[in-house]
Amino acid sequence: MARLRHCGLEPLADDATLIVSELVTNAIQHGYGKQVTFTMGVRDGFLHLAVHNETPGEPAVRTADDDAEHGRGLFLVDCLATARGGNWGTSDDGATAWCNLAVPDGRP
Q1: Per-residue pLDDT tens digits for 42-97
Q2: Is 54 within 8 Å of 37 (Cβ atoms)?
Q3: In 3-state terms, what secondary structure has residue 98?
Q4: Distance (Å, rounded) from C-alpha 68 to C-alpha 8?
Q5: What are the angstrom distances between the C-alpha of 16 and each of 42, 63, 92, 108?
Q6: Pairwise CA distance, residues 29 & 82, whole Å
Q7: Residues 5-16: pLDDT tens digits?
Q8: DSSP bridge pairs for 52
Q9: What angle do CA 13, 57, 35 make, to 5 degrees?
Q10: Which class for 53: exposed (0-12), middle (13-18), buried (19 or more C-beta within 10 A)?
Q11: Does the model's pTM come out above 0.70?
Q12: Angstrom distance (rounded) from CA 53 to CA 33
């Protein structure tokens, strides 16, 4: 996330790193395509993060048991997005999961 630091968005770097890690992990674990792509950009006051995995589906937040080793990734994405004044979702076919985080200080 050096690019975020370079662009003056260091306050978002840790949360963005965790979000991207969770979205890419989901794409690898639940996808069966040959390629996973990641895009990042700033527009309309939000940092937009997206991961595409060529596999249609319906990623959803789950409630994991206390001792479960999996099942919290999208819950974390949802919590971080909400805490940063943003949101998350998927493309209509579910092959792309995305997250928006509000840019500090109203930067473009």
Answers
A1: 999 999 999 999 877 776 656 655 664 555 678 889 999 999 999 999 998 888 99
A2: no
A3: strand
A4: 37
A5: 12, 22, 23, 17
A6: 25
A7: 888 899 999 999
A8: 37, 96
A9: 60
A10: buried
A11: yes
A12: 6
**Residue 43 bridge partners (DSSP):** 46
Q: Would you state the structure tokens that stand for residue 46, as one six-digit string?
A: 């939000």
SS3 16: helix
Report d(CA 92, CA 57) in Å as an integer: 9
Q: Residue 92: which residues within 8 A CB-CB, separation 6 or more? A: none
Q: Answer positive or negative: Cα dihedral of 54, 55, 59, 64.
A: negative
What the block records as the tokens of 90 is 């998927």
